Amino acid sequence: MEKELKQIKKLLILFMVPFALYLLNLLKIIFIPLVFALFGALLFMPLMRWLNKKGVHNVFGILIVIAIILGGLKISYEVIALSGKELTSAGADFREKFDTKLHVIIEPVMNLAGIHPEEGQSDIGAIMNNEQISANLFGNVGDTLNFTRKFISMLLMTIFFMVLLLAGSMDMQKVMQLLIFKKQFASVKTFMQVEKDILKFIVVKFLLSLFTGIGFSIACYAFDVSFPIFWGLFAFAINFIQMIGSVISVVVLSAFALVEIDNTGTLLFFALSITGVQVLFGAILEPILMGKSFQINTITVLIMLALWGFIWGIPGLILSIPITALLKKIMEQFPGTAVYARIMS
Predict the structure, then answer these.
(1) How far lies 8's CA from each of 67, 118, 179, 218, in Å?
(2) Residues 8-55: pLDDT tens digits?
(3) For site-directed labelling of 289, which of 90, 93, 100, 307 has its Cα 20 to 30 A away?
(4) What CA–CA distances, in Å, run from 128 to 99, 110, 131?
(5) Is 296 exposed, middle or buried (0-12, 13-18, 19+ CB in 10 A)?
(6) In the structure, what pLDDT confidence band is assigned to residue 212 with cuts at 50, 70 and 90?
(7) How many Cα neighbours within 13 Å face the side chain of 214?
């Protein structure tokens, strides 16, 4: 009878996991901001506890946190605006050089597609005037506007959920105790460990991504590659996508440098320089600073990136590692799932 009950439980779990993933995808407009808010709240909880010890009322503590968030958003906006000005201030010399190099690269593709520029028309102009390509590009304007609307709504919901969590409207430790653990000690211990690990991950990842972006900007200045601020911002932002982001930033910037740098040796040295920046901060310093916080093997990381990317898209790629670390930490507390946690290590 006992064996039959165990088999029934396993079958139920097998059916429930796909259903749970389906719900996470269906209700992602709620779950994505909630998960971002949870990790954001974990980041500010030490500050809230410190303010409480100093006798600062919870309301004023939340106002301080909101001020910090708004300050961060303001700085982000200014950097993006500066990057936008940098892109729009490109001179005629750059555009002429860019068009010449681009023509050499894409001419075979244009001939294959049957696109032929008219007299005085640039390659980009010919591509944009192509009916099929134009329909695909401008037909997605509505999708872009919809994405912007969703992003703003998710950002506001994230801040709202974070305020609720910091105000104590939802005690995650008690939720873990009621839904997962039976004993208070186990829930408190696991919650504190998760908070410590996630906080360390966020801080280390932010600082290393920041220094990676600065390294990319310095490399662009050193090799006279255009738009150094933009490329630094791009490297910083995409570096939050574990493993894949670092590869994308190096490949995209190297491809752009191909248009600007004529000397093959200089181009190779530039590519090696930005690769070295990624290796230093991503492959050397990050594992050292993270220490034994997560201990998640490469195969698990790739599987989770694919899974959460499929369910939630780009937000899923960013959140995949913290979510995996949280699940692994919970699985370690139960004898039945501890073996899977060890496999993930």
Answers:
(1) 51, 70, 20, 59
(2) 666 666 677 777 778 888 888 888 888 888 888 888 888 888 888 888
(3) 307
(4) 14, 12, 8
(5) middle
(6) very high
(7) 8
Amino acid at the residue 223: F
Interatomic CA distance for residues 329 and 345, integer angstroms: 11
Report residue 163 as tokens: 């305020």
The alpha carbon of residue 36 and the mean position of all alpha carbons in its chain are separated, in whole angstroms, by 11
Which runs of consecutive H residues, i.e. helices, occur in the chain?
2-26, 28-53, 58-88, 92-113, 123-129, 131-138, 141-167, 172-179, 184-222, 228-238, 244-260, 264-278, 286-290, 298-312, 314-331, 335-344
- What one-letter code names the amino acid at 111? N
CA separation, residue 46 to residues 111, 112, 191, 196, 250 (Å): 60, 59, 13, 10, 35
Query: Is the distance from CB of 221 to CB of 210 less than 8 angstroms?
Result: no
Q: Which residues contact 230 (CB under 8 A, 6 or more apart)?
A: 83, 86, 87
